[in-house]
Amino acid sequence: MSNVKLLLVEGYQEMSKVAAQLFAQEVKRKPDLVLGLATGGTPVGMYEELIRMHRTEGLSFSQATSFNLDEYVGLEAQHPQSYRTYMQEHLFGQIDMAAERTNIPRGDAQDLEQECSRYEQAIAEAGGIDIQVLGIGTNGHIGFNEPGSSASSKTRVVQLTPSTIEANARFFESVEEVPTQAVSMGIATILGAKKIVLLASGEAKAQAVRDMLEGEMTPDVPASLLQMHDDVTVIVDAPAASLLSAVTIGRAKTE
Ligand code: PGA
Predict the structure, then answer these.
(1) Is 40 in the pocket of ligand 1 (CB under 6 A)?
(2) In this predicted model, what pLDDT tens digit does every residue of 159-217 receive, in sequence order?
(3) CB 109: neighbour CB atoms within 10 A?
(4) What is this structure's pTM?
(5) Atom of ligand 1 nearest to the CA of 164
């Protein structure tokens, strides 16, 4: 498992709290930091906890910049299922981040290739990502880097796999409405973050978590490529840790 730090927690709420504490710690240490943000079901609880800290403990994001991992191709920013809308509802609309410093790829850009290089350049110009949060797909994807994504991949247009489309259909009226492509940071973009925090909750993620931590580093399991980074913290709840070996569990820290 290389030097990936593994934190075992009981359930989703504990996972969300521990993750929010790691983020809050970084925001306090460096108020003008660059956050790498994610969407999906997993980070919702962490965002709720950060909002609570903002409201009750004065945690401020006023000097922070953010870059999201991905956006669906073809959805304009105002679309109810766009990741811009998600971020507005689950985080940006409830904290004090400056709107002009929140970055999400434009899935409705005329020239998507140009949008991808613009996004990479904007991350570089901001000084790189200080702390990146990730979820993990049941197929081991991170961002929308599906199996087969190379370690050197940068922000690009990706094709979503049938399993990802099916997993994300719960956010849409029907599976046919789920876009089949996305703009996603690449594996190399993600590995460029100074600190990475990956969250996994629920039994459906157990196999992917095992493959990520105990398997070989392979593009077949994109999350396993995180093993080459030297500052990754993986926070896993009990159901998501259920397939890990006794050796891995023995090396983990319990929160
Ligand atoms: P989820 O998605 O948080 O909705 O489970 C995670 C992912 O696909 O990376």
Answers:
(1) yes
(2) 999 999 999 999 999 999 999 999 999 999 999 999 999 999 999 999 999 999 999 99
(3) 16
(4) 0.97
(5) 8
Cβ of 133 closer than 6 Å to ligand 1, yes or no, is: no
Pair of tokens at residue 73? 């191709």
Kindly report the three-state secondary structure assignment for every residue of the chain: CCCCEEEEECCHHHHHHHHHHHHHHHHHHCCCCEEEECCCCCCHHHHHHHHHHHHHHCCCCCCCEEEECEEECCCCCCCCCCHHHHHHHHCHHHCCCCHHHEECCCCCCCCHHHHHHHHHHHHHHCCCCCEEEECCCCCCCECCECCCCCCCCCCEEEECCHHHHHHHHHHCCCHHHCCCEEEECCHHHHHCCCEEEEEECCHHHHHHHHHHHHCCCECCEHHHHHHHCCCEEEEEECCCCCCCCHHHHHHCEEC
Q: Are 200 and 209 in contact (CB under 8 A)?
A: yes
Residues identified as active-site = 70, 139, 141, 146
- State the pairing for strand pair 181-184/195-200: unpaired
Q: Which atom of ligand 1 is nearest to the CA of 138?
A: 8
Asked if 234 and 6 count as a contact pair (C-beta separation under 8 A), the reply is yes
* C-alpha of residue 240 to centroid of ligand 1, in Å: 13
d(CA 94, CA 73): 26
- Determine the residue type at 163: S
The amino acid that residue 37 corresponds to is L
Q: Do 174 and 180 contact (CB within 8 A), yes or no?
A: no
